[in-house]
Amino acid sequence: MALVEVRNISKLYHLGGEEIRALDDVSLDIDGGEFISIIGPSGSGKSTLMHILGCLDSPTKGTIRLDGTMIENATPHQLAGIRNRKIGFVFQFFNLLPKLTVLQNVELPMIYSGYSARERVIRAMEALKLVGLENRSKHRPMQISGGQQQRVAIARALVNNPKIVFADEPTGNLDSHTGEAILELFRKLSQEGRTIALVTHDPEIAAVTPRRIEIRDGKIAKEVDARLAGLDRKPSPTEGARP
User: Fold this and answer.
1) pLDDT in tens, 175-232
2) Which own/partner contact pairs does 24-28 have at CB distance under 8 Å and 24+ positions apart?
3) CA-to-CA distance for 103 and 120, rounded, in angstroms?
4) Which is one GO molecular function term here (predicted)?
5) Which tens digit of pLDDT belongs to each residue from 16-51?
6) Which domains, ranges and CATH numbers included, belong to the chain?
7) Longest CA span, the chain
């Protein structure tokens, strides 16, 4: 069974009497341990897809199974629990709280998971070690560089040991050298067995992932999987986006 199973999801919006189809009958699977990118131009539907996969939004129709749990009909409270336990997020603008230390920012997801204060510190330090920032634990976000802030955000995404991490334009607010270092960190985490999905509009960033899913006009337009001899393919209606 795939870690994420998406079947025939669509997302419709109604604006001024007009129906906007942000996603149109999308099907795909993501296996545990995969490193994939979801790529497409602005307005293609890629961010909508990430929001639905990340339980930040619900589809208008279709089904989603995450780690064996059907989520498309979950209540807001249930979705919040799934996000906290099973999903990590990394965003373009870091979203760190400026008044908290690096360690306290990484601890935040665990506050809602019932860990004791001592357990939170231990796990947060372990996550900071993964990204090479254990020596910055007492600093505040404005006292470290942009690349280091993004590493803190990655540590925060990993601290609850999620099943999958979604990174939405994670290098978009960084210079090219720092962005390459962040992508190298994602590669390293993938090699350690983490499941990571990068969302980007940049083909060069998408090229670092073994599997790339291109979204256009709310549909999967193309899939490239380097594990299959680099062949481009279009998904069939019956098999979703996977070979």
Assistant:
1) 889 999 999 999 999 999 999 999 999 999 999 999 999 999 999 999 888 777 544 4
2) 24/217, 24/218, 24/219, 25/62, 25/219, 26/62, 26/215, 26/218, 26/219, 26/220, 26/241, 27/220, 27/235, 27/237, 27/239, 27/240, 27/241, 28/4, 28/213, 28/220, 28/235, 28/240, 28/241, 28/242
3) 9
4) transmembrane transporter activity
5) 888 889 999 999 999 999 999 999 998 899 999 999
6) 32-55+76-233 (3.40.50.300)
7) 55
